[in-house]
Write a structure and sequence with these properties.
The structure is a single chain. The chain has 18 helices and 24 strands. It has 484 residues and is α/β, with parallel strands linked by helices. It has two domains: 235 residues, 2-Layer Sandwich (Nucleotidyltransferase, domain 5), CATH 3.30.420.40; 214 residues, ATPase, nucleotide binding domain (Nucleotidyltransferase, domain 5), CATH 3.30.420. Strand 22, helix 15 and strand 23 form a beta-alpha-beta unit. Helix 12 packs antiparallel against helix 14. The radius of gyration is 22 Å and the shape is globular. The protein starts with a strand and ends with a helix. Belongs to the FGGY kinase family. It catalyses: D-xylulose + ATP = D-xylulose 5-phosphate + ADP + H(+).
Length: 484
Amino acid sequence: MYIGLDLGTSGLRALLTDEGGAIVATADAAYGVSNPYPGWSEQDPADWIEACNTVMAALKEAHPRDFSAVRGIGLSGHMHGATLVGAEGQVLRPCILWNDTRSAAQAAVLDETPNVRDLSGNIVFPGFTAPKLRWVEENEPKIFAQVAKVLLPKDYLRYWLTGEFVGDMSDSAGTSWLDVGKRDWSEELLEAGHMRLDQMPRLVEGSDSSGMVRAQLRADWGMSGPVTVAGGGGDNAVAACGVGCFRDGDGFVSLGTSGVLLAAKNSFAPDPETAVHTFCHAVPDTWYQMGVILAATDCLNWLSRIVGRTPADLAGALKTGVSGPSKTLFLPYLSGERTPHNDSTIRGSFIGLDVATTPEDMTQSVMEGVSFALRDNLDALKATGTNLSRVLAIGGGTKSRFWLETLATTLNLPLDLPEKGDFGAALGAARLAIAADTRADLSTIMTAPKVAETIEPCADLVDRYSETHARYRALYPHLKAALK
């Protein structure tokens, strides 16, 4: 038996699977995010430990015999977080999360440093780890002086599980300290970030073993034998493992809290100017490119709070079958934007509201705005030479047929919907655990889900959505100027 742990921003999800990857049980534990100042987003790593104990207890209670037979644990986690650890293994301050924007100035300085983009393969975004440490150096120098190790969130959980300081290539690719082409720490990048190699964890591939669960934990949990912990990876890379997306040309679109359009690559071919992320995959000798928007279903959640109706109610009120884009445009920059703008200060807007606008009209505009933002991502991927002929669609937003039809037509791509099941990062983490323990061929472990249905673009509406997307795209510089 195997366990996949997905350390998300709002909670920890656990899956218990058999050797074939079939899901036996699931468990979840929630925790909060602290926002002490505008643009700040922090989390207490102790909450991750408490959540892990909670999900393990739940899995054990539900399936005690299967739980005792666990042989491997895989890890997935939200990327870019800075967990600062002292010489005695103590946490020095709350973890600074991926959506924290306080280090925008430090990111700009690093991004302009010679060779940083070339070696890291990416723009230095404010959410990345390296600028966070420069911010700590400048604003919390006493804490900076005590830093013995910097761990990404899931790697702190690993440290608690195994006692080992280990990271993996896919998660570490989002730090701006990794030579993404060579899949190793870069001393030049570390020097640019005022960091040292001894402050970094040892690196392994996501499908390799990173250590063993501590004997005391196994005894406390009632696991009968040795338990390997896989290298794991960043959430999107591990989610790609969960849907079998690791061959060149494979891709998926995720309508989650944030939005992602990801394509697997068999070579390292970065193009930072497009604001497309180029990261190591969680499996060896593979990379991926990814466009990211910071708010996808989060935009619908925001609208639901404004109008006092649930997201499901808002989505359910829309008719099935798109008939053309709304006259009202929504720019979904509620938390800033990554691809293609790399702009932490831009904010969202409705354009074209009038007295007749209804909540349904606004819901449609929100779904279209997110779809247009993902079209920006597709165009950015194409600019790097990456072309997708179809993509798998996953995430909570795929429950809306209207949103799926809008997105397929906006992207002008068929969207394949998997059969019902859990195909997220927790499953990918469990698959990495299977790989680390059994050393079986990855293609037999990380299979693609069966496709239940394909949403085709509405051919007679593609041009209209493309024209409206051009109007949407032209609004960004005007909004930027208005917010100065």
